[in-house]
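Protein Entry — a single chain follows
Next Lines — sequence and tokenised fold
***
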Amino acid sequence: MALCYKSCDNARTPMQWSSGHQAGFTTCIPWLKLNANYIHINAAEQLNRPDSVFHFYRQLIALRHRHPIIVYGTYQLL
């Protein structure tokens, strides 16, 4: 029982790559249980949806590369 409190495995699931068999994570049976939402929430779905978190972060990274002030700028607390 003490292991349940110390282990991180109870808060993890295999990476949800696709809506396919075992979420595209493995062809075997993973030791960690898949989250049931892998059919709707997965990496392939994020790549195909323009308003996804993946594409939002791509835009943020592009913005950071275009404007060095985001990395090297300073600010003054008011």
